[in-house]
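input
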Amino acid sequence: MSGTYYTTPSPPNSSDLGLEANITLCQDWENAHHLLFHLANLSLGLGFLIPTTIGLHMIFLRLLLMTGCSLFIAWATLYRCTLDVMVWNVVFLLVNFMHFFFLVYKRRPIKIDRELKSVYKRMFEPLHVREALFQKLTGQFCTIQTLKKGQVYAAEDKTSVDERLSVLLKGKMRVSYRGHFLHNIYTNSFIDSPEFRSTQINRGERFQVTITAEENCKLLCWSRERLTYFLESDSFLNEVFKYLIGKDITNKLYSLNDPTLSDKAVKKMDRQPSLCSQLSMMQMRNSMASTSDTDDVLNQILRGGSAGSLHQKTLPKASTSMKPIEEGMEDDVFEPESPTTSQNISKTPREDI
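output
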């Protein structure tokens, strides 16, 4: 009885397969794809080559990517009949379209209210505040209020400073202290910037001046608490407000030194004041800080009395708890000390100093 033997063929050697593959690999190249395929890749390449220095580079990138995906879909559907290529490019097209729509929506033109346009153009636009950010600042927690001629915005020692911060949109307001006129407030200026700045730490203070509408006025009012919270979340806008309030306080000090300035002169107060203005303002501050009879000082200032007589009048009433600011320290900021000045100081009797 003869047996039947079956032999299984040995598996081919991997080296033989690799050699055979190398012999037959890419010997027969396929024909070039359709023109749509090349145009699609060209669109993708151009999109990736757009420099980031162009302001709208992201919009152009998404637009070219959508063009490339659309050409790939047409190529895969009409000439290759490959479902997977078509599906993937449809997904890519939808994703890029959503990004493109979002970028265009962010750059939509913002319509600022007509009453607020002058404030934006004069105060915020020069500091590169975008219209969308300005609308966000004014659209949620601020109101527009009106005051008739003669109405009081803030009463001395009665109105709290913690309620609001306001900008005068239209009209003119008058600031007085114990019945004495101090200065006017004009359009596109903060009304209570000194109080806002000085009471950021100590709350519960009240106005030390009376602010009255001299004409029919329109105000842009922020809730102070909500405005402070909003500025804490936006560092850029917080710095902008610090600059605007500091500049407004400086302009008010200049107009306080010369309350007879005209409206046009007040609007051009950005220039640096003269040394005489700085000295007279410093003397007024020293006099008011070192005397207990503020009415006499104000009357002397309003009558146009000289700085020397004002200083001599208030010197005997000097308070021991509050020292006036030394004027000589600020003089050095504006001009160097001359030899004649130093000689005059040395010749002055100690009693006059």
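quick obs: DSSP finds 15 helices and eight strands in the chain.
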